[in-house]
């Protein structure tokens, strides 16, 4: 079974600065997907970024980028030019590549990291 | 508007009571999921469904029952609520086509069991 670990329960950053959230995972699979979700106080789960394991290029979405280290099984999220609206709980999640079979494409989540942004 | 909706948003009930959380999606997604969110555990899968009348257990299914008679609905029932089931519950759905399609989440139901 896959496991996902976020070792930073809380992080803080000054507005306009850069912060990196860590995520490690354990799997025996070679192909899979990794996701970062943002959960603001409104409780919504918002997809931030997605990475396919078979792609060596790190995914980017505007101010959000990842550092994907497949051999190290590491998937960190970098937020550049942090904004007050970035304050939220961030979850790292793993999904097996094949969506059918017994996995049904279910997500395995890390414990979450609370990000505080200081003005 | 199209999307995934959960109801109620908040619910307080007592131990031993039966409670049903509703989930409705308008995308005709094949896959639907129920998760619970607890501090220190992230989100954990309770049950999932690949299509109408096809459901299976996730990581923490004990004490929960699901059904899926229609593609768009996936209710979660706590047959005899216990305090350990106090949590925030999320429903999610995903299209069956293609790889890597993300799950879309409802806004969650905060359930308190006294």
Biggest sheet record of chain B = 7 strands, mixed
Helix percent of chain A reads: under 10%
Return Rg of chain B in Å.
Answer: 13 Å
Compressed to H and E, one letter per element, the order of chain A equals EEEEEEEEEEEE
Overall outline of chain A: globular
* Number of helices in the DSSP assignment of chain B: 0
Description:
The complex is a heterodimer of chains A (119) and B (114). With 119 residues, chain A is mostly beta strands. Chain A has strands spanning 3-5, 10-14, 19-21, 24-26, 32-39, 46-52, 60-61, 64-69, 74-79, 88-96, 107-109, 113-118. Chain A is globular, with a radius of gyration of 14 Å. The N and C termini of chain A lie far apart (41 Å). In chain B, 0% of the residues lie in helices and 51% in strands. Chain B contains no helices and 11 strands. Chain B has strands at 4-7, 10-13, 19-25, 31-38, 42-51, 54-57, 64-66, 76-78, 87-94, 104-105, 109-113. In chain B, a hairpin with a 2-residue loop joins strand 5 (42-51) and strand 6 (54-57). The model of chain B has no long low-confidence stretch (mean pLDDT 92). The chains are: A mainly beta (119), B mainly beta (114). The A-B interface holds A 4, 6, 33, 35, 37, 42-45, 47, 50, 52, 91, 95, 97-100, 102, 104-112 and B 31, 33, 35, 40-45, 48, 50, 56, 58, 88, 90, 92, 94, 96, 99-103, 105, 107-108, 110.
């Amino acid at each position: 079974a896959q496991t996902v670990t976020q070792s930073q329960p809380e992080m803080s950053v000054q507005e306009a600065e850069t912060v990196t959230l860590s995520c490690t995972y354990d799997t025996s699979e070679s192909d899979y997907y990794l996701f970062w979700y943002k959960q603001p106080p409104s409780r919504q789960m918002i997809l931030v970024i997605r990475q396919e394991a078979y792609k060596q290029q790190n995914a980017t979405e505007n101010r959000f980028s990842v550092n994907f280290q497949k051999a190290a099984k590491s998937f960190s999220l970098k937020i550049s030019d942090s904004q007050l609206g970035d304050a939220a709980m961030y979850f790292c999640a793993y999904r097996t590549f094949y969506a059918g079979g017994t996995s049904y494409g279910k997500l395995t989540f890390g414990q979450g990291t609370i990000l505080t942004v200081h003005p | 508007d199209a999307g995934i909706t959960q109801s109620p948003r908040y619910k307080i009930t007592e131990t031993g009571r039966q409670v049903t959380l509703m989930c409705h999606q308008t995308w005709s997604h094949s896959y639907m999921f129920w998760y619970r969110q607890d501090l220190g555990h992230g989100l954990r899968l309770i049950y999932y469904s690949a299509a109408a009348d096809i459901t299976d257990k996730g990581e923490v299914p004990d004490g929960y029952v699901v059904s899926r008679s229609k593609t768009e609905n996936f209710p979660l029932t706590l047959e005899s609520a216990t305090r350990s089931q106090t949590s925030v519950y999320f429903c999610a759905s995903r299209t069956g086509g293609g790889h890597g399609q993300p799950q879309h989440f409802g806004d969650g139901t905060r359930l308190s069991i006294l």
